[in-house]
């Protein structure tokens, strides 16, 4: 009989076991927990009139938003709890919008109004919390203090001034999200919309309105102007729109003291509307001086206010704040008053009030214009000068007293020489 021969199976060259096993894939992700923080100041005037409102009744601040939720401050003049019998005032922060298990950190501060900065502060921030951030379960949930301050102590403290209290509340909403690795590298170019619109202005293609400025003609596009300026929108498309929208005559935009070639002003205005940036003033006017730049910024601020271009107005205000000078500050102050630029006004008043500047500014033509156009500002200027002088006198007095007392100007004791 024949024999059956058996051989042990051997792996073939094509068998998967002939290759080493692939290394396991490794991925990663990160959980990020952060605090979105904001604050609100709540001023309570007529405190004495609020007493007797009733236990559990409150005065509420306006609603303010932090971290995607609305919040409100609640002040209880007669306290929140009946058992305290109106002995304490109560202060709380409440969730004023829909939300479930909102985790947050809080800080309630009763401001010291004496200037000593001895504020009464209750805070979650900058300290370790045993149980973590506070959790508000639903709309109306509160965090705060039933016995925030004893009423009798409050009414004789520096926290109450002119029958007024001031409370500052900080809220930090805790949010978490998970970040994974990016599997793409797509370079996103910066926006070019301003450049495209600017090129449209320069080419003049499709223009459908002309502006006449002291004999010069500027071609533009109604839709672009209307999209950028509420004044142009009303002028071109509103119920009281100009009868002839093919050519609109632009009257003088400023008082005689601010006279500059209106060609440059309107050209710069259109440049901003289309490009969303300021033009190079030196290149535009051909003038290379700080005075010329300041003058253009003054004109543009007035034009921006006239046409409702808030961003341009703020850009001009910021530029003028940086370039306050003797020969232009009076006209800048007049502009700040006329166009409600409060920060610019404060900068100008502070600059003029110094003794070395005041006399020089009073000799300028701009100061004469300021007196004629904004007489009320002169009263504010005099008050500011008086406060500035009084402060300087006090500082000088303290310095002299310190030196006589054997201290240096920083208050450190020094050994007198014999």
TrEMBL record:
<dbReference type="Pfam" id="PF00651">
    <property type="entry name" value="BTB"/>
</dbReference>
<feature type="domain" description="BTB">
    <location>
        <begin position="207"/>
        <end position="274"/>
    </location>
</feature>
<comment type="function">
    <text>May act as a substrate-specific adapter of an E3 ubiquitin-protein ligase complex (CUL3-RBX1-BTB) which mediates the ubiquitination and subsequent proteasomal degradation of target proteins.</text>
</comment>
<dbReference type="InterPro" id="IPR002083">
    <property type="entry name" value="MATH/TRAF_dom"/>
</dbReference>
<dbReference type="GO" id="GO:0016567">
    <property type="term" value="P:protein ubiquitination"/>
</dbReference>
<dbReference type="InterPro" id="IPR008974">
    <property type="entry name" value="TRAF-like"/>
</dbReference>
<dbReference type="GO" id="GO:0012505">
    <property type="term" value="C:endomembrane system"/>
</dbReference>
<feature type="domain" description="MATH">
    <location>
        <begin position="37"/>
        <end position="171"/>
    </location>
</feature>
<dbReference type="InterPro" id="IPR045005">
    <property type="entry name" value="BPM1-6"/>
</dbReference>
<dbReference type="InterPro" id="IPR000210">
    <property type="entry name" value="BTB/POZ_dom"/>
</dbReference>
<dbReference type="InterPro" id="IPR056423">
    <property type="entry name" value="BACK_BPM_SPOP"/>
</dbReference>
<dbReference type="InterPro" id="IPR034090">
    <property type="entry name" value="BPM_C"/>
</dbReference>
<dbReference type="GO" id="GO:0071472">
    <property type="term" value="P:cellular response to salt stress"/>
</dbReference>
<dbReference type="InterPro" id="IPR011333">
    <property type="entry name" value="SKP1/BTB/POZ_sf"/>
</dbReference>
<feature type="compositionally biased region" description="Low complexity">
    <location>
        <begin position="10"/>
        <end position="31"/>
    </location>
</feature>
<protein>
    <submittedName>
        <fullName>BTB/POZ and MATH domain-containing protein 2 isoform B</fullName>
    </submittedName>
</protein>
<dbReference type="Pfam" id="PF22486">
    <property type="entry name" value="MATH_2"/>
</dbReference>
<comment type="pathway">
    <text>Protein modification; protein ubiquitination.</text>
</comment>
<feature type="region of interest" description="Disordered">
    <location>
        <begin position="1"/>
        <end position="32"/>
    </location>
</feature>
<dbReference type="Pfam" id="PF24570">
    <property type="entry name" value="BACK_BPM_SPOP"/>
</dbReference>
<comment type="similarity">
    <text>Belongs to the Tdpoz family.</text>
</comment>
